[in-house]
Amino acid sequence: PPIKKNDDVAAKDKDGVKDKQEKNQANKSLQDTPSKSTFAYWKRKKRPAPSVPVPVRREIKRIPLKEIQAEMEEIATKQEELERQGREIEMQIRDRNDAEPTIEEEEMIMHLFELVNEKNNLFRRQAELMYIKRSQRLEEEQVELEYQIRCIMTKPLNQKCEDDAKREEELLQRLLEVVEARNEIVDSQEMDRRRVMQEDWSIQEQMAQKQSEIKEKMVTPEPAPERSTRKGQAQEEGQSGEKARRDGRRGEAQVAEEDVQGKLVLSK
């Protein structure tokens, strides 16, 4: 029937208008979206500049000052004890009345050499600790100088001023002085090492010579010398001196008597 046909046509027209509107809306959204050929699509947002790195102090390995001071006090105590032992041995050697050195005296001299060698080792360790203490202080100062120089160098150019440039120059000059001082310490340690080697060689040579003398005396003992103490020698020397003085007085008396007789003869 004609009424049904008109309703179908109206429904189709309504659907077509709706589809057309949807297509127009889709085309409009596509037109608003930039294509790959446009500059705006490929342009990226500018990232912020990286932040300036913060300087960090360099870490160093160091011996605590308390440990250095404690070891130096211990060395001083040992040195006093060695000096005391050395004085006792020297007094024992001087108090002996032997006409010639005996094996016992040679052994005492050897012990004295050992004490001297040990005392020298303590002195060397003490000097080494002093070098370590000074070197650590200079190294700490060098680390601080390097940190301050880095802080100035990382400062932006628009924030630097004349005082920063002057301060940087002063820090660089002081850094060179610290490095030279540390090099002098290294040179001094090398000189001390060579001197120590020479001293050790000399002491070892003397000790070896004494040991060989002791061995020779132990293998072929010499005959015991006649016992003549210093007291006996002094008495003999005193007696001979008194005799000489008596003889001298006798001679003077004879000369005086002859002079008197001569004068009497002349007066006559």
UniProtKB/TrEMBL annotation:
Q: Where is the composition biased (Polar residues)?
A: 26-38, 201-211
Task: Give UniProt keywords alphabetically.
Answer: Coiled coil
Keyword Protease assigned: no
Q: Where is the composition biased (Basic and acidic residues)?
A: 1-25, 212-229, 240-252
Segments forming domain BMERB:
55-205
Instruction: Using the record for this protein, list the coiled-coil segments as residue ranges, or answer none.
Output: 65-92
* InterPro entries, per database record: bMERB_dom, F-actin_Monoox_Mical
Tell me the segments the record calls region Disordered: 1-53, 201-268
* PANTHER family noted in UniProt: CALPONIN HOMOLOGY DOMAIN-CONTAINING PROTEIN DDB_G0272472-RELATED (PTHR23167), EPS15 HOMOLOGY DOMAIN CONTAINING PROTEIN-BINDING PROTEIN 1, ISOFORM F (PTHR23167:SF46)
Name of this protein: BMERB domain-containing protein
UniProt organism field: Rhipicephalus microplus (Cattle tick)
Q: What lineage does UniProt assign to this protein's organism?
A: Eukaryota, Metazoa, Ecdysozoa, Arthropoda, Chelicerata
